[in-house]
């Protein structure tokens, strides 16, 4: 499956927010689960697994995507509007998940 950036962005925008209860209070999680899965397991081989990823690493990477210091056509768009608190919440959520679930 090879989606163009506009098609992927449209899929994200239309993706229903259907996260399990433990992540329901994490802002912006619905956007992340489109590619990285509800349980932090990528929905395609091109999307990395985030379950169990160290939160400090995720905070650093999301901040780099947000600032443009780390380049990714999709992640720069997704991370740009995130606040520091949202980044911390997302990083903590994915760190709390068991890898490989």
From TrEMBL:
Keyword Membrane: no
Keyword line: Electron transport, Heme, Iron, Metal-binding, Signal, Transport
GO MF annotation: an example: electron transfer activity
InterPro entries from the UniProt entry: Cyt_c-like_dom, Cyt_c-like_dom_sf, Cytochrome_c_Oxidase_Subunit
Domain (Cytochrome c) ranges: 18-98
Leader sequence segment: 1-21
Classification via Pfam families: Cytochrom_C (PF00034)
PANTHER family, per database record: CBB3-TYPE CYTOCHROME C OXIDASE SUBUNIT FIXP (PTHR33751), CYTOCHROME C4 (PTHR33751:SF9)
Protein name per UniProt: Cytochrome C
